Description:
Proliferating Cell Nuclear Antigen; five-stranded antiparallel beta sheet; DNA damage; DNA repair protein Rad1; DNA repair
Amino acid sequence: MEPIFSAVSNNANHLYTLLRCIGFASKASVQLTPDGIRFSVEENRVMQGLAFLDKALFTTYTFNPPTTGQDANDMDDEEQDNTIHPQFLVSLSALLETLQIFGIGDTNLPSSSFSNPAPQSSAAGAFANPALLLGRSCTLRYQNIGSPLSITLSESGITTTCELTTYESDDPSFGTAAGELDIPLQRDAIIMKIIMRSAWLHNAITELDGTNPTVLSISASSKKEPFFALSGSGGPFSESTVEFSIDKNHHDNDLNHKPLTRDGEAPSRRTKFAPTVTETFQVTPPSSMGSRVKENYRFALIRKAARAMAAATKVSIRGDIQGVLGMQFMIELGDNGNASGGNLPNEGVSRNVSFVDFRFVPLIDEDDGEEEDEMISF
Length: 378
């Protein structure tokens, strides 16, 4: 009998790197889909992380989903979407230990100043030793509903197989929101969107972490300074702030080179500004907020995304009108062993870039330090 799912990767380090980014919880929810494997973790319904292992990361990917049992001959085409995408819980810590059984780990990577250390300080650092990847393969297999998740690692003729017990969740909503995080980010009510190099965010959070804060405040405005600032407060030391400012000299030069108006005068200064380090900077707060978006989050939760910050090349920071914070990290994974000589670079981008997502619920009030968990509903 064919298994429900089987996949082979020739680079277990890619899988380890992505899953390590969400390794802040002991268990993960796993969902098998035709397009890849979704691993999601959460903490007390105020923080969630999602890592998607796209089928392109595997040399072979086979998915034979079970069905609801209804006879396909008795259904119209519109009704034949009765396949099941199996979903179960698995020990994420055990899976990570299994993937590094042949030495894939943090020993060859620099440490971070975070108390929850990130394995590397840049995307390139995660793959700095290609010799570690030679001759290693990883096979994932899920035979039937309720079967263990089997992981087989092979290197230089040595093969190790581990079977991880799978569990069903006691949560009645488990599996009802396939492919989505439970903490809702209102895509039609985004009031802040910032895209920047992840290293800038990682460095800023590292600096703030040195004062051991309990609250992280994010402040953004496109009209007045500080345009984008991160502040840490509530710890044993005084409040500290990292501000991302604009390059005023560069901005003035841009104004000087603008074409003259019909009256022969230079156009007036633009009313919106963007910090120099950002690629995209869109801040559109509602009138009730004035010209600035500002929200508070528990610093300990933001710290748990440190590994993703360190491994990623870019980060997209989004906030909705309810204050929910979304961070999407773009992680470059090299050529995955499937390079075609570099003749088609655009093809390689989609294959070798993966994303890790986090959602954070804001604090109701900076003083009482409580999370707004009543927001979570699906």
